Amino acid sequence: MTDSGTVDIHISLYDYTNDIRVNLWLSCEGIFPTAKVYGFGDRPKSCHLYGFGDHPQGSLSGITSSCIMQGCEEILLLLGEHCASTLLQTDISIRKGVNLGYIVVSTCLDYLLREPFTYALYFVTAMGHVNFGVSAAFPASSPADALQAPAASVLVIGAGLAGLAAARQLLRFGLRVLVLEGRARPGGRVYTSRLGGGQAAVELGGSVITGIHANPLGVLARQLGIPLHKVRDRCPLYHTDGRTVGTRLDRSIDLVFNTLLDHATRLREALKEAAEGISLGEGIERLRRLYNVAKSEEEREVLDWHLANLEFSNAGCLSELSLAHWDQDDQFEMGGDHCFLAGGNSRLVHALCDGVPVLYEKTVKRIEHGVDGVSITVEGGQVFQADMALCTVPLGVLKSGSIVFDPELPENKLGAIQRLGFGLLNKVAMVFPSVFWDEEIDTFGCLNKESSKRGEFFLFYSYHTVSGGAVLVALVAGEAALEFEKVDPVVTLHRVLGILREAETNTETPEMIQSGHGNRSGR
């Protein structure tokens, strides 16, 4: 214990499955609540942190011990009455490329006190830093009895990853939970379809885990023992006539692209408030002209490809992205490799669904809320009642106004819904009888002569390593993604096959077995 009365606690945890030791460092300023609950960003000076990293990036899962988990069904009550003021530093080997699976308490230092340890673990469990995912089972319940138990009840709206993960946590905390989903399936924008006679798993929704360090999806995959395939770095680019873009041209324009982004950051800093009214696309184009780069047709086509990739990364047109704010979430990006999930991302969805009561084809139309609880009306007039509701529907649904809130949401929330934009990406998935492209790559790109069409099938993902079939997915971003919505799928399919044949001129493109399109906008 320090002179200030703060108890510094070191908890040593061990992941027996992966032979990894993990350290948690806690600071408890008093055992019962009177002081501030510290966050990750404002630790007290009395708390000494040690570990691999400078700041926490990882989450643990599956921490079990009778002294920790006993009475977990009363966690919300305990947090209200006895939660210690705590600070947690999860300095784990996640920064070395590791996600933790199922771990157990191994050793605690002699000075570890039972009460602060117990309440600290309650606190970080409730905050979702530990004990999330599918490692700890809870009794399954059906939609019929989900709202009949004698505890507080919650209606979760939406059976996407967010809704399912929240429902599992709430069930684990001892609440009664029922999920209402408008579609006939779970997963939201994560949708793995079986094409090619059911042999190939094809992602028609979200497909790539973009960084596995501290990514809950990476933790889920580790818990389930699902192999992850690292997306290999090599991505050859092809001209419209099928020629491969030369290494010298490729590297030089890659340098130009990154330099333009660096200068865009400096421009934003120089302009200050004036940058608010300038788009990222306008800023980059001004800088390109100022520095007189990417002048030739070939150079401009390669630069356009990089700009299309930037539009893909941001799910929006550069003309709609703010120069002042477009990269404000960079500090929250997940580190580590980008990966494909063997067998499809729906494996995570189905695991999260296990034991969670879900009613499908229940499109919510009205939410009435007040001191006495909530009343939710779905399409067709059926009404569900509970103590509280958790709404996890997409931003697009909220912006459309298809759900009526009574009373209306607060002005600050309505303003946020109105101001926040959301982007659009599209894709065409194709299954072939065999792999006719380079099997040593996972991606390749295709240039376009027209800047306005630079995002049209600009990037192809090869899923032959994880899908169970010869699967290619062509991506559409930027302005091309908006135009894609207006074109007949048959026309787009002929277009993408034409581009593919041009790129693979050295190999005969076999007849496609089946195709599928990504979810179109609206929900």
UniProtKB/TrEMBL annotation:
GO MF annotations in UniProt: flavin adenine dinucleotide binding; spermine oxidase activity
Residues covered by the Amine oxidase domain: 161-503
GO biological process, one term: spermine catabolic process
Pfam families: Amino_oxidase
Lineage: superkingdom: Eukaryota
Family indicated by similarity: Belongs to the flavin monoamine oxidase family.
Protein name, per record: Amine oxidase domain-containing protein
Lineage start: Eukaryota, Viridiplantae, Streptophyta, Embryophyta, Tracheophyta
